[in-house]
Specification:
alpha/beta; Aminopeptidase; 8-stranded mixed sheet; 11 helices
Length: 387
């Protein structure tokens, strides 16, 4: 089996949806216009059970199949990024400084395509929950939707999601069992010294040299405190201090990101950051305050659901187009909150040769939308066949 004929038949319509969404991007939780457009399409498909306003602008729509059965959840993210678009496309963003640079317009379109087909055919038992989520790019719409009870309220038993992947063969699927994306935390270190004239450093407590010492010591967490064959990233990404050449400032600020898969490793990093901040502060005669913002947990696929999803993907695109041993990566994804509560799988869908995600020149490949929609539709039909 290849792309479902009915879905291929309305591919041009899907392209129209996607390009409309691309031209009207929204940020974070404020995806109200996007949600309204989604609801309008769902009602056109004859779907009437639609819950809105979840996590501010999220949508959950339910489609009944034929006969009793479980509920399967399919999720698409809707939000864009604060980036000035540089694609030059006719359908480029009409909102200055905001663009769909991560393919969420395509994700929403693929789920709408599956919804249209499933609402027409209903060739499955039980129910399907269509989850349109805001704020994946931060601060975590997936977490809020889970906290607001969508999984329990709709009795969702398993969940699946797709993400576009530029640089991979167009229409191919990639996934793996177990962790596929990392947990992400952010650290901040505020250093308080005593400033003064740059010509008289002995009268100061220099926060600049303290910051340099801390940054150098932080590099040893990965190289000296962690087993070299396990995955860990600790990156310092900002240092801010000082204003002029002849004044030693009062303060300095360090900021960075932590990417882990193992909660024990995560705790080790937090402990070492505290020790480094306190120890280096004492060594340089300054004070330091460490703040850690715990972000998205690791995205962990259920092995059985990965195997099942791979079977479905092979039906759509063929054996050679499905990779099930993809190397896990250090990026993060808030679908992790749903996978923490229900078994499921997260897969990447090849975009073809294209600029990287979060690049101002990125644009979703409309040719792969029918592939993703067919995957979602067949997933439901295979998981919950009519008795």
């Amino acid at each position: 089996m290849a792309v479902i004929n009915r879905i291929a038949g309305f591919a041009d319509e899907m392209t129209g949806w996607r390009r409309h969404l691309h031209a009207h991007p929204e940020l974070g939780f404020d995806c109200h216009q996007t949600a309204a457009y989604v609801v309008e399409r769902l009602r056109e498909f004859g779907i009437t059970e639609i819950e809105t306003g979840i996590a501010t602008s999220g949508v959950v729509a339910m489609i009944d199949g034929r006969g009793d059965g479980p509920v399967i959840g399919l999720r698409a993210d809707m939000d864009a990024l604060p980036i000035d678009e540089a694609t030059g496309a006719i359908w480029a963003s009409e909102n200055p400084g905001v663009m769909h640079a991560c393919g969420h317009d395509g994700h929403t379109t693929m789920l709408l395509g599956a919804a249209k087909y499933l609402a027409e055919t209903r060739n499955f038992s039980g129910r399907v929950a269509l989850i349109f989520q805001p704020a994946e790019e931060g601060p975590g719409g997936g977490r809020v939707m889970v906290e607001q009870g969508i999984l329990d309220r709709h009795d969702i038993s398993q969940v699946y999601a797709l993400h576009t992947l530029p640089g991979a063969e167009a229409g191919g699927f990639q996934t793996c069992p177990g962790p596929i994306m990392a947990a992400v935390d952010t650290f901040h270190i505020d250093i308080q010294g005593r400033g003064g004239h740059g010509a008289f450093p002995h009268d100061t407590r220099d926060p600049v040299v303290a910051a340099v010492g801390m940054v150098q010591a932080i590099q040893t967490i990965v190289s000296r405190n962690h087993y070299a064959l396990d995955d860990l990233v600790v990156s310092v990404t900002q240092i801010h201090t000082g204003t002029v050449d002849n004044v030693i400032p009062d303060t300095a600020y360090i900021n960075g990101t932590i990417r882990t898969f193992d909660p024990d490793v995560q705790q080790m990093v937090w402990t070492r950051l505290r020790e480094i901040a306190d120890g280096q502060a004492a060594a340089f005669g300054v004070s330091a305050e460490l703040r850690i913002e715990e972000g998205y947990p690791a995205t962990v696929n259920d092995a059985g659901r990965v195997a099942f999803a791979a079977e479905v993907a092979r039906e759509v695109v063929g054996e050679g187009q499905v990779v099930t041993d993809r190397t896990r990566e250090m990026g993060a994804e808030d679908f992790s909150y749903m996978l923490n509560e229900r078994p499921g799988a997260y897969l990447f869908l090849g975009q073809g040769d294209a600029p990287a995600l979060h690049h101002p020149g990125f644009d979703f490949n409309d040719a792969v939308a029918p592939v993703g929609a067919s995957f979602f539709a067949r997933l439901v039909e295979r998981a919950q066949p009519v008795a």
